[in-house]
Amino acid sequence: MEQKVEYNQRFIWLVSLTAALGGFLFGYDWVVIGGAKPFYEPYFNITSATDQGWGTSSALVGCMLGAILCIILSDRLGRKRLLIFSGFLFSLSAVGTALADSFWWFNFYRIAGGIAMGIALNLSPLYIAEIAPPEKRGMFVTINQLLIMIGVLLAQVINWQISLLDTLMPDAATFEQIAASWNGNYGWRWMFGVEVIPAMLFFILMFFVPESARWLIKNNEETKARKILQRIGGEFYENQAVTEIKTTLRTEDLARVNFKELLNKRVVKFLAIGVFLAFLQQWSGVNVIIYYAADIFQAAGYTLKQMMLNIVVIGSVMVLSVFITIFTVDKFGRKKLLLIGTSAMAFLYLLIGYSFYVDQGGWVVVFLVLANVMFYSFTLAPLLWVVLSEIFPTRIRGAAMSIAALAHWVGNFTLTYSFPTIKENLGWANNFWLYGVICAIGFVVLYLVLPETKGKSLEQIERELG
C-alpha cells in the first residue's frame, strides 16, 4: 500500500505566501496606473494618443526586459536571487515614480518597476509550483493569483481614497482644473509611493525562504534539496521526490542550462501552446478594461469620482472571483475552466459592443464589464500561470516559462499601447467585438490542443507529455 505523505502545511503556506508577495506587488504596480492616469496626464500635459499610450504602457517594456532576464538567468541563478532583485526594483520604482518631475523620469522608473513585474509574475508562480505538493499545486499557484488580485484591489482602493482627499476638485473637473488641483500635483504621487512599504517587506522576507529543490538538484546541490523536501513532506516524500526529479534529468543536464533543448520538437510544441495562451490572456481584452477603465466609464456617462468608485468595484470582483479558481482548479481541471472562460467572454464582448453601438450606457455597461472581468479572473488570469508552470521539462522550465512570459508582456504592451489608436479608428463597439472574436478563436484552439494536467506531479506530466 502506498504510504500517505503528511505535508508540513505551515511551512508550505509561509513559503508560498512570501513568494506570492511578488504577485501582490505585480497586481498593485499593474493597476495603480489606471487610477493615477486622470491626474498625472494633466500634470505632464499629455494630450496625444501616442503619449497617453506610452505613459500607460511604458512599464510593459520593463516587463519584457524582466522576462528576458529570466530566460537567461532563472535556470542559472535560480528563482530566489531574481525574486530578491525584483523586490529591490519594486522599491526603487515606487519612490522614483512618486518623485518624478518630468514625463521622461516618470517612464524611466515605470520601466524599472516593469522589470520587477516581469520577474515576479514569471518566477513567483514557478517557484510555488516547484514547492507545492502535486495534489494541491493548482490551488497554491492560484494563491499567487489571489494576491495579484488583492494587490489590484488595494491599488484601486488607495487610488480612490487618495482622490477623495482633494475636496476642492469639482466632480466634473476639466483637464485644466485637474492640472491645478492637489490630485493633479500630489495625489497621483502618493498612489505610486505607498507601494514602497510592501515592496521592502517582500525584499527582506525573500532572504529567508529556501531555493527551489528542483533547481538545486538540477545544479548538483542535492544535499540542500533533500533538507528542503524533507521539511515539506518528511523522509518518504524526500526520497520519492528526488527519485522522480532525477528520472527527468539526464546526467549531462546537471549543473548546466542547455538552451538547445528549447529547439526540441516536443518542447517547441508546448512552447507554442504557452505562447498562444499568453497572447490569448492579453488580447482577450480585459487589460484594456483595467488600464482604461476611467475612459470606458466616462464614455458610458460617469463622472470622475463615480469612475474611481466603479474601478474599485472591478477590483473587488477580481478578488472574489479567484476564490472560485482556488476551490475548483484541482477538482475540474485547467482545460474545462479555460473553455468556460473563453466562451463566456466571447458572448459578453458581443453584448458590451452592442451596448456601445446602440449608445446604451450607465449600469448596463458596468454590469456587463463586471461579468466579463469575473469570468476572466477565475479562468484566463490565474490558469495561464498554472499551466505554464506545469507543461515544461524541469531541465529547461525556467527558460521555457520565461519565453511564454515574454510573449505575455509583448501581448500586453501591443494591446495597451495600441488601444487608444484602435479605439479612435474602430470605435468602442467594434473594439469590443474584436476581443470577442479573439476569445472565440481561443476557445477553439484550447479545445483542440491543450492537455489536462490536474493532480499529477511535474515529473509525471513531463513523462506523459513526452
Structure summary:
The protein has 466 residues and is mainly α. The protein is 80% helix and 0% strand. It contains 19 helices and no strands.
Structure explained in plain terms:
It is a single chain. The model has no long low-confidence stretch (mean pLDDT about 85). With about 475 residues, the chain is mainly alpha-helical. The protein has 19 helices and no strands. The protein starts with 8 loop residues before the first helix and ends with a helix. The chain has one domain (about 10-465): Growth Hormone, Chain: A, CATH 1.20.1250.20.
CATH top level label: Mainly Alpha
CATH superfamily label: MFS general substrate transporter like domains
Approximate helicity band = over 70%
| End-to-end CA span | 28 Å
Structural class: mainly alpha
Report the C-alpha radius of gyration, rounded.
22 Å
**What's the count of strands?**
0
What proportion of the residues form beta strands (DSSP E)?
under 5%
Mean pLDDT: 86
The general outline is globular
* CATH architecture assignment: Up-down Bundle
The SSE order reads: HHHHHHHHHHHHHHHHHHH
Number of helices: 19
Quaternary structure state of the chains depicted: single chain
What's the CATH topology label?
Growth Hormone, Chain: A
Total domain count: 1
| Unreliable residue stretches | none
Largest sheet: none
Pfam families: Sugar_tr
InterPro entries: MFS_dom (IPR020846), MFS_sugar_transport-like (IPR005828), MFS_trans_sf (IPR036259), Myo-inositol_Transporter (IPR050814), Sugar/inositol_transpt (IPR003663), Sugar_transporter_CS (IPR005829)
GO molecular function: transmembrane transporter activity
Protein name: MFS transporter, sugar porter (SP) family
